[in-house]
Write a structure and sequence with these properties.
single chain, two-stranded antiparallel ribbon
C-alpha cells in the first residue's frame, strides 16, 4: 500500500479537508464564544445566554426546513417571506378566533411550500427563480393584509409562548428543540430523509435507483414550508404582532446558518445537527457584536466574510454544476 493513501484509498489531504468540513461549525462556535467572552464580561451571563437562545429559536426552526432543500442541492429564497406571512396570517385570524388560529400558520407554510415545490418539480422552473417569485409575492401579500401596519396579538396564551418559560427554559427554545428532534428523525430514520440526501448526491442515480424524484422535491419543499410556518408562529409570539416587515432578510441568515453548519450548497451531505450549530453561530455573532459596540454595517460585513469562508470550506467543486 502506498504511504500516501489510507486503507480506504483516500489521501491525507482529502481526509484533512473532510475533517475540516466536519468540525468547522464547532470550531467557529468555540472561537466566537471565546472571543466575545474576552471582549465582554456580560456575554456568559444567564440573562444574555437566554437572550441568545430566544433569538436563535425562529432562525433555527426555519433553517431546519431549509436544510432539507439544500441537502437536495436546491435553494429556497422564500423562507423569510413564508415565515413573515405565516406570522401575519396567525395574527390576523387571532383577532376573531383567538388561539385556535395558531395552526393556520402551519397550513400557510405547507401550502406555499407545496406550490413552489410543484412549480420547481413539475414545471422545471429552477428553485432559485421559483422561490424568488414567492419571496416577492409573499412580501406583497403581507403588505396587503396588514395595510402596512402591525396586527397586534392580545391573546395571553400566544404572548406566553413567546415570553414564558417551562422549568426555567424559554418555551420557544423547547419548541425549537422538539422541531429539531423531528427533523433529525426524518433525516436519519425515514425513507424521505435518505431519498433527499440521495437526490442531492446525484439526481440521475437516485432516479435510476427507483426514487420518485419529483415527489421527493415537492415533499421536501412542503416540509420546508411547514417549518417556516412554525417559525412564523414563534416569531408572532415573540413580537406580539404580525408585522408587515416580519421575516424580512431572514432568508440570508437561514442560508448562512445551513452552510456554516456544514451543509454545502451542492447538497448530498450535512444535516440539521450542523444547522443548529450554524444558527447558534449567527445568533451569537449578532449578540456578541452588539455587546462589543460594533455598528450594524460592520456586522453585515463580518457575517458575509464568515459565510464566504464556510462556502469555500464546505462546497464540493466537482458538483458545483448541480445546484438547481
Amino acid at each position: 500500500m502506498s504511504q500516501n493513501t489510507t486503507t480506504s484509498g483516500a489521501t491525507p489531504a482529502a481526509l484533512s479537508i473532510e475533517s475540516l468540513r466536519t468540525y468547522f461549525p464547532l470550531l467557529v462556535l468555540v472561537i466566537v464564544c471565546i472571543g466575545f467572552a474576552i471582549f465582554s464580561d456580560q456575554f456568559f451571563s444567564i440573562r444574555n445566554l437566554e437572550t441568545v437562545l430566544r433569538q436563535t429559536a425562529v432562525l433555527s426552526i426555519a433553517a431546519m426546513g431549509a436544510t432539507f432543500v439544500i441537502l437536495m442541492a436546491s435553494i429556497d429564497l422564500s423562507v423569510g417571506a413564508v415565515v413573515g406571512l405565516s406570522a401575519v396570517i396567525v395574527a390576523y385570524f387571532m383577532q376573531s378566533i383567538g388561539i385556535v388560529a395558531v395552526p393556520s400558520g402551519l397550513l400557510v407554510g405547507a401550502v406555499l411550500g407545496t406550490v413552489v415545490g410543484t412549480v420547481y418539480a413539475k414545471l422545471k422552473v429552477p428553485s432559485f427563480i421559483a422561490t424568488l417569485g414567492l419571496m416577492v409575492a409573499g412580501h406583497g401579500l403581507m403588505l396587503h393584509i396588514t395595510q402596512g401596519r402591525p396586527i397586534m396579538i392580545r391573546d395571553e396564551t400566544m404572548r406566553w409562548i413567546g415570553s414564558g418559560t417551562i422549568a426555567g427554559i424559554p418555551a420557544i427554545v423547547l419548541i425549537a428543540l422538539v422541531a429539531f428532534a423531528i427533523a433529525y428523525f426524518v433525516q436519519h430514520h425515514t425513507v424521505l430523509g435518505r431519498s433527499i440526501v440521495a437526490v442531492g448526491g446525484g439526481e440521475v442515480v437516485a432516479q435510476r435507483s427507483g426514487i420518485k424524484v419529483e415527489r421527493i422535491k415537492i415533499t421536501t419543499f412542503a416540509l420546508a414550508g411547514l417549518y417556516s410556518g412554525l417559525g412564523g408562529i414563534v416569531l408572532a409570539s415573540r413580537m406580539g404582532a404580525g408585522s408587515p416587515t416580519a421575516g424580512s432578510g431572514l432568508e440570508l441568515d437561514v442560508i448562512a446558518a445551513v452552510v456554516i453548519g456544514g451543509t454545502p450548497l451542492t447538497g448530498g451531505m450535512g444535516g440539521v445537527a450542523g444547522t443548529m450549530i450554524g444558527a447558534l453561530i449567527i445568533a451569537i455573532l449578532s449578540n456578541g457584536l452588539n455587546l462589543a459596540g460594533v455598528s450594524s454595517y460592520s456586522q453585515l460585513i463580518i457575517k458575509g466574510l464568515v459565510l464566504i469562508a464556510a462556502v469555500i470550506i464546505s462546497i464540493d467543486r466537482k458538483k458545483i454544476g448541480i445546484i438547481k
